[in-house]
Structure formats: C-alpha cells, structure tokens
C-alpha cells in the first residue's frame, strides 16, 4: 500500500520539477534500482529451498498464466474491434440512406 | 531486448548467490528490498509526472481509443481466471500475476512483497514469458488478427520493448494506439496488483 503513496509522491515531484534536469537524473537511476531489486529477489529465492525444489512447477504455472492472459486479451480486443467496425458500418449505411 | 536480458541475468545471478550462500549473511533482507522498492516507486512516479508525452496524449485522446486497453485488461483477467481453474493458486493470486501485463520487474517485486517469493517467482516467469511470446508471435498474429488485437498481446510493454516489432509489422500509424495502450496499462499495474494481493 505504501508503494502507491510513494508513486503519487513521485508524480507530484516529477510534475513540479518537470522543467529541471532532476527527472532525467532520476530516470538514469531506475534501471540500477530495478537490477538491484531483482538481484535481491534472486538471492531471497535462491536461499528458499521450497521454491528452488519446485522451480519446474512454478515455471509451468507461469507459462499457463502467460499463455492464457495473452489469449484472453487478444480475444477480448478482437471483440472490441468487431463491435466498433459494425457500428462504423451501420453509421455509414445510415448516412447513405439519408 | 538487451535490457530484458540484463535484468534476467541479474536475477539468475542473485539466485546463484542465494543458493550457494555466496553473500555475507544479512546483506540482503526483506527490509532492504522494501526500501529499494519505495525508491523504485518514487522514481517511476517522477518519470510519469514529468512526461510531456503523457499530457500530449491525454489532450489529443479520443475516448474510443481507450476501449483497447480496457478490453486488454478485461481479457487478461478473464484469461487469468480461466487459468486459475487448473492451477494450484487462488483466483486473486492468479489475477495479481496476470495484472502485471508483462511489466515483470515492477509486478513481481510488488507481489513478492505483498504475498511471498513463491508467487513473485511465478509472476516474474509469467510476465517475462508474455513479453517473449509477444515478440515471437507478433509477425504471425498480424496475419490473422486486427491490429489492435495484436497490440493487446504485449500488455504494458507496447511502448518500449515490443514497440519496434509492432511498428515494423503493423505500420507506424498504429504506434500511437500502442503508446496509449501501454501507458494506460502501465499506470494501472501497481493499482491492480496491490488490489488483488490484498483480497
């Protein structure tokens, strides 16, 4: 929950200091922080025997979730496109008639 | 692409260090990662707040274009809900993993913090794979699907890592849609992940 508060604080700071070189400086720090965090995550995971012993099944769960979320968003946005196209076509034919 | 590989390399290096206890005891702890996480969220916020592109796009936005990220979100959640039927994780945890929208660095860190390292690992693998699958499948999918549906595959990555392949495959007229799609999803990742983790 605190993480969100920090993000909003950041948005405010970024907006106020948008005309200075400060945001560019911060942008250069993002990647090292991400790397440090994932390294730490790796250390905690590597030291955790339950996770290390179950890595194949965790990987499989990840693959199932990746494939299903990807397929889900493709299907859903395809439907959105379909509906938008139909409405556009209907509007076009109505204009032709009038 | 190169930065994704570096990120994965650091993660694997961390796993090796943890596995074989190569680091002095107590150097890496949950408390340290929390501080780093707050620093990351602060800098993510700062780069959002000063982004002129964001305001340009908000100004020139037609509401219709927002239907794509909305559809992408709903579809991702439906997919994750379906997957939860055959996985050992509860619905809310599957939704939290899915809500990473391929933005693996932030979502897996948030999930590790809120739920635990095990689900965080699943989130990392899932969202890395979603990005990789998108990079692989875009050229093929573009033959059968409407361009916005191809963009939806990439989730929150369609403004950085997967933008070049999308622009090359779909044409530069779709870059704007891809940017709006990613910015909306990107912004919503922390909200959805924290929301689903708290259920």
Summarize the model shown:
Chain A has 98 residues and is mainly α. Chain A has helices spanning 2-16, 22-46, 49-53, 55-97.
Written account of the structure:
The complex is a heterodimer of chains A (98) and B (199). Chain A is mostly helical and 98 residues long. Chain A has 2 domains: 1-53; 57-98. Chain A starts with a helix and ends with a helix. Chain A has helices spanning 2-16, 22-46, 49-53, 55-97. Chain B is mainly α and 199 residues long. In chain B, helix 5 crosses helix 7 (117-144), helix 5 (91-98) packs antiparallel against helix 10 (175-197) and helix 7 packs parallel to helix 9 (163-170). Chain B has helices spanning 2-19, 30-49, 52-59, 67-86, 91-98, 104-114, 117-144, 147-153, 163-170, 175-197. Helix content of chain B is 76%, strand content 0%.
What secondary-structure arrangement, pairings included, does this model have?
The complex is a heterodimer of chains A (98) and B (199).
Chain A: H1 2-16, H2 22-46, H3 49-53, H4 55-97
Chain B: H1 2-19, H2 30-49, H3 52-59, H4 67-86, H5 91-98, H6 104-114, H7 117-144, H8 147-153, H9 163-170, H10 175-197
Helix pairs in contact in B: 4-5, 4-8, 4-10, 5-7, 5-10, 6-7, 6-10, 7-8, 7-9
């Amino acid at each position: 929950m605190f993480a969100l508060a920090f993000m909003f604080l950041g948005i405010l700071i970024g907006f106020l200091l948008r005309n200075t070189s400060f945001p560019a400086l911060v942008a250069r720090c993002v990647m090292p922080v991400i790397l440090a965090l994932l390294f730490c995550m790796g250390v905690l995971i590597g030291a955790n025997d339950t996770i290390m012993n179950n890595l194949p099944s965790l990987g499989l769960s990840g693959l199932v979730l990746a494939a299903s979320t990807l397929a889900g968003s493709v299907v859903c946005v395809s439907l959105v496109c379909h509906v938008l196209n139909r409405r556009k076509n209907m509007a076009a034919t109505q204009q032709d008639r009038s | 692409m190169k930065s994704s590989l570096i990120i994965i390399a650091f993660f694997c290096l961390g796993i090796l260090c943890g596995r074989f206890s190569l680091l002095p005891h107590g150097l890496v702890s949950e408390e340290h990662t929390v501080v780093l996480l707050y620093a990351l969220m602060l800098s993510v916020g700062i780069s959002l707040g000063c982004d002129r592109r964001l305001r340009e796009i908000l100004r020139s936005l037609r509401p219709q274009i927002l239907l794509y990220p909305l559809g992408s979100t709903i579809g991702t959640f439906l997919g994750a809900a379906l997957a939860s039927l055959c996985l050992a994780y509860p619905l809310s945890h599957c939704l939290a993993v899915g809500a990473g929208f391929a933005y693996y660095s932030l979502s897996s860190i948030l999930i590790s913090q809120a739920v635990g390292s095990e689900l965080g690992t699943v989130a990392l693998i899932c969202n890395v794979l979603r990005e990789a699958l998108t990079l692989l499948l875009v050229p093929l999918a573009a033959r059968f699907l409407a361009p916005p549906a191809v963009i939806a595959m990439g989730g929150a990555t369609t403004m950085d890592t997967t933008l070049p392949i999308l622009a090359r495959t779909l044409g530069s007229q779709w870059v704007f849609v891809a940017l709006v799609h990613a910015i909306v999803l990107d912004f919503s990742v922390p909200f959805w992940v924290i929301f689903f983790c708290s259920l």
